[in-house]
Amino acid sequence: MGLFLFGSKSGTRLATILHEQREREREKERNRVERETERERERERERERERKRKRKREKERECLSRASSQSRRLSHRERGRGGRIFRKHLDGFSFK
Questions:
Q1: What separation in angstroms does the CA of 74 have from each of 30, 33, 52, 77, 84?
Q2: Is the pTM higher than 0.85?
Q3: I need a labelling partner for 45 at 20 to 30 A (CA). Which of 9, 19, 26, 38 fits?
Q4: For residues 14 and 53, what is the distance between their CA atoms, to the nearest angstrom?
């Protein structure tokens, strides 16, 4: 083994240094992996937020289109004879 070339004390010191170096490298790797994982989680959260926003916009759009089609139906229902539109007022019917 190459560790004990310089006698037991320096060999032990060298082994300690190499061990600490390996530990630091492992720690760096763990930190890198952790940061990468956290970034991925954040991206996933952002995608989920975007999906929710999209769903909300679609619901609003659907609601608006439903409301406008209901108003079209209403105005169609309001049509009287001769295609004139009338709406009920307090004093009776008003023709347009």
A1: 65, 61, 32, 5, 14
A2: no
A3: 26
A4: 58
Going by C-alpha positions, the residue among 20, 18, 42 that lies closest to residue 34 is: 42
Domain ranges, ordered by start, for the chain: 7-76
pLDDT tens digit string along 24-80? 999 999 999 999 999 999 999 999 999 999 999 998 888 887 776 666 555 555 555
Is residue 1 predicted with pLDDT exceeding 50? no
Residue type, 95: F
Using the structure block, give the residue that is written with the tokens 């089609």: 69
Alpha-carbon separation of residue 16 from 4, 8, 12, 19, 90 (angstroms): 12, 12, 6, 5, 97
Q: Is the pLDDT of residue 82 over 90?
A: no
The Cα-based distances of 57 to 37, 44, 82 in angstroms read: 30, 20, 40
> Taking Cα atoms as reference points, which of 68, 93, 69, 91 lies closest to residue 81?
93
